[in-house]
Amino acid sequence: MANSTAIKVTNLTHTVTSNTGNLTILKGINMEIMESESVAIVGSSGSGKSTLLGLLAGLDVNTTGDITLYDQAFSNQNEETRALMRGEYVGFVFQSFHLLPSLQAIENVMLPAELKGDKDARKKAEALLEKVGLSHRLTHYPNQLSGGEQQRVAIARAFASQPKILFADEPTGNLDEENGKLIVELLFDLNKSQGTTLVMVTHDNELAKMCDRQLVMSAGLLTEKTL
Amino acid sequence: MNFAFRLMLRDIRSGDLVTLLMALIISVSTVTSIGLFIDRLQLSFEQESANLLAADRLIRSDDAISNEWKLKAEEVALQQAERTSFSTMMFANDALQLSQVSAVTDAYPLKGSYLVDDTLFGTGFSFDEPPQAGEVWVSSRLASLLSITIGDIVEVGDAEFTVAKYLVRDPGSSTSAFAISPRAVINMADLEATNVIIPGSRVRYSLLLAGDRDELAQYEEWVTPQLNEGQRWRTPTERGERIGDTIGRAESFLLLAGTLAVVMSGVAMALASARFVKRHLMQVAILKTLGATPKLLTRVFVQQLLALFVTGALVGLAVGWGMQEIIASLLSGLMSTSLPEPSVSRLWLGAATGLISMLVFCLPLMLRLIKISPLSVLQPNAKIEQNTLFIYLIGFFGMYGLMCLYTKGILLPTIMTVAIAGIALVVAVIGWVAFRLGRSLTSGATSGWQIGLASLYRRLVPNLFQLLVFTLIIMLGLILVGIKSSLISDWQSQLPEDAPNHYLFNVQSNQIDPINNETDKLNVERSDWYPMVRGRVTVVNDQTVQDLYPDDRGEPELYERELNLTWSDTLGEGNTLVEGDFSAQGLSVEQEAAKEANLGLGDVLTLNIGGNNVTLPITSIRTVDWGSMRPNFYLILPKSVLEDYPANFVSSLFISDADAQPFYKSMSQYPTVSILNVGDLLKQIQTIIGQLSQAIQLVLLCILSAGALVLLASVRSTLEERLEEGALLRVLGARSALVRQALLVEFGALGLFSGLIAALGAEACLYGLQVFVFNADASFHGLLWVLGPAIGVCVISTIGLFASRTVLKVPPMHLLRGL
Predict the structure, then answer these.
(1) Which domains does chain A possess?
(2) In a mutagenesis test of the A interface, which of B2, B7, B378 is the best target, namely the one with the most A β-carbons within 10 Å?
(3) Contact across the interface for A84 and B292, Cβ inside 8 Å
(4) Which of A76, A189, B539, B565 could bridge to B606 as Cys pair (CB 3.0-4.6 Å)?
(5) CB-based contacts of B18: which residues, under 8 Å, 6+ apart?
(6) For B40-77, what is each residue's pLDDT tens digit?
C-alpha cells in the first residue's frame, strides 16, 4: 500500500513585525512529507528552520498559505482545534528537553496520556521509560537527571501519545557526543517500530544524513538536498 | 482523580502553590483575626457601657411602668429588673438627712455589679445582688452624716432597715443629675411599707432590660411609639457618652489597621500570584504542545483555584480564629474583664477577602497565563499577550472594593487610595533619581558596592515597584506606631491620674471661703467656682418650644430639661471659641448642643429663670472638653444678666483615696452641700482606655507581622533573577564575598530608601491626622526617622543575606541548572 501524505505545505509565508518593520521569514514554502518518512530540515542559524517547525506543528499561525495534516486543514484552525490535533497527531522532542521541573520522570511521561483521559497512563509511561532505559529513574525529578537522561525522558514523553508525526528541534544540540548518539539511536528505533513520521531540525550533518530526505532552508526558501 | 487535582498535588511539591496558598492563608487569617478581635472589643465596650447603665436598655419614666410593658418584655424573653428612685429623709440616732434612695428588684443589676464595702470609706468589692428585704446599704458619706455603722437601724418613712453594707458604687447610678444627696439602696419588696411614695412625689421609675440584640430591637420598635412626655428609651452608648469619643477613635484606629491588613493581604496575594504565573509560563506552553486546549487549561486552573480557595479559606479561618484567641488570652491577663466570645457570623469577612483576592489578583493572571503561545517552547523569549493595564485596573478596583466592604464606606478607602497613588509618584521620582545617581557614581564597577548600586538602575522597573511595596509597608507600620502613641498619650493627657473625681454642688457664696480653707488644708486640687442658676429654654426665635415640639419627639437636649446656667466674662479652661464674640452681651452656646437644636449666631432664645423671662441673642459658639471632668455648661450668660439671681456654686476637685475620709468628715459641717463622687466612673473610663491601649498595641503587632511576611514575599518575587546573576558572577570567578556584598548593598539601599521615604510619608500623614482628625497640635516624630530607615535596612538586608546563603553555598552549576 502506498504511503499517504502526512504533511502538505502550500505557498506558506510567514512575516513578523519587528522594531525595524516587517520581516518575512518564510517566503513561499511548498513541500510534502509522506507517512513514516524521516525528514531533516537543515540550514544556518536564523534561516527560519525553527519557525517552519513551529508552524508545521501548529504552535504558531502562518501569514499566508496552507498546512494540512493527514488531509485535514491545520494552519487556519483556531488554537482550540489546533491543540486537539496536536494531541491527536503530534509529538515533540526539544533541544532543551522542556520537562516540567515539578514533575517526576514518570509523571512527565504520563502527561500526554493523562490529557487524553487515558486510565492506563502510568502503565504506559512505565513501559516507555523502560524502553528508553530509565526504569530505575521513574521517581527522579528533572534536575536529578543528566542531560542525556532528561532527553530520554522527553523522548518517552513524545511517544506516549502514540503520535503519527514527531517533531524534533535539535534533539542532540545540548548533549555530548556519546549521549547524542544514544538519543539518535533511540529516536530512530522508536520511529521505525512505531511507524512515526519524523520531522527534525538540526545543524548536525551526520544526523541529517540518517534521515530519508534532507531539506535545506536558506533565506526563507526551502530546497531539497540531492544526495 | 481529576487531572486538575493530580496536577495540583504534584505542583505542591514544587513549593509555588504553597507560596500562593500561604499568601491566601495569611490574607484570610489576618483579616479574620483582626475582624473577630475588633468585634470582641466592640462587644466588650458595649458591655462596659451596659455596666454603666446596669442593663442593655432602660426605660426611664416619671410614672410607674405599665404592666403591659413588663409582660411584653417577658414575652420576647428579655431579662428585666426595676429601679424606683426618690429623695426622702432618713432618720437614725436622732439625726436626719435628705437622701437619694433607690429601691431595686432582686434581678438588679442586669449588667455590672455593685461595689460595696464593710468598712467606712473603703474602696469596695464587687457584689452582684441587691440588699435583702429589711436591709439598707448606705454610702459612707450618708453613714458619717447620720453617725451610723453596719448593724445600726435607720428609718425610711414608716419602715425600719438594718444597715448591711456601705455602698461604694451603684452600677446604674446617675451622674448627671444635680442636687445630689447621699445615696442608699433598699429592696423593692420593702418599698410599699415605707409609704414614702404618695401622689405628687418626685419619683423616677426605671425598667431595665437585657437580652439579645434582635430581641431588644424588637422590643424597642414596639415600645418607643408608646413613650410619652417624661419617658425615655436609653441605650448604653448614650449613657456612656463621655467615653464615646475615646471608643470612637479606638474603633477608627482598629478599622484603619484592619483596612491596612486587607491592603497588605492583597499585595501578598498579587505578589504570590505573579510569581506563580512567572514560574508556570513554560509549563503551560509545554502542556499546549502536548495537546492541552485553552478550554481544558481554563478548567484546570479554575478548578485548582477553587480547591486552593477552599483549602486556604478553611485553614485561614481556623488560623485567624486561633490567632484572635491567642491575642485575647494574652490580653486576658492585662484586662480587668474577660472579652465576650467572638461571633461566628463575622467569619464571612475573612472568607470574602480570600475569595475577592483570588478573583482579582489570581484569576486574571492565570487566565492570561493560559494565553501564552505554545511557540515559547521553541522561542523562549515569546511573551504573554500584554494587557497589563486591564490586570492593574482589576487589581485596583478589587482592592478598593475590598476596603469599602471592610470599612462599610468609601471615605477611608478613597483617602487611602489617593494617598497611595501620591506616594507611588513620589517613590517613582525619588527612586529614579537615586538609582540613576547610584549608577552614574559606579561606572566601571568592580567592587561589591559598585555592582550592588549599579544593579538598582539595571533592574529599574522591578526595583521601583519593590521600593514602592517596601515603602508602603514600612510607612503603614510607622503611621500606626505614630497614631498609637499620639492616641494613647492624648487619652492619658485627657484623663490624668489626678483628674477631678468629685463635684461640689449647692454651695452658697458665704460657704466658698470656708470650704476653700478646708481643701487648702488637705492640699486638694480644686477648679474655679462657677455660679449656677437653673433655667429652661421656653421660646426660640418667637416660637415656643411647645409649638416647635408638640409631642416631644426629637426634642433637643437644650430644650428638653431645666438647664444649669452660669455666667462668666471670660472663657473658662477647656472651652474654645468657635465663632462669634464671647464678651458680647448675649448667649454662648456649646457647639454640639447648638448643632442638635439647629441654632446659630443671631438666633434668639428666651429663658425662664426663677419665673422671669430673659431674652438674648446667641453671640458665640464654643466647644467644651467634656472629658476634662471640670464643671461644663451648655449655656453661658453675661454676668450682668444673672448676677442678681440667687445662685449656688459648683466646683470640681481631686480627692485621693487617702484624703477621702478626712475630706468627707470636714464636709459634714456643711450638710446642705452636695458631693458627687465620679471617681468610680473615672476609674471605669481609665480601665477602658487601658484596655484599648493594650488592644491597639496587639493589633499593631499583628499587622506588623503580616507586613513582615509581605516584605518576605516581595523579596522572594525578584530573588530568582538576583540568584541567577549571583551564580553567573561566581561562574565568572567572583569571590563569594563580592557576591554577598553586592546583594547586601542592593537590598540595603532599597531598604534605606524605602525607610526614608516611608518616614517622610508617615510624618506627612500624621501631620494631617493630628491637625484635621484629632484636632491636636502637630508634632515632629523624630523616632519615625530613626525607625523607618533602621527597619528598612535591617529587615530587608537580613532577608537578602538569608537568601544569598544559597548563592554562596551551593555550587553555581546546580543553581544555574535549577533555575
Answers:
(1) 5-224 (3.40.50.300)
(2) B378
(3) no
(4) B539
(5) B12
(6) 877 776 776 677 778 888 888 888 888 899 999 999 88
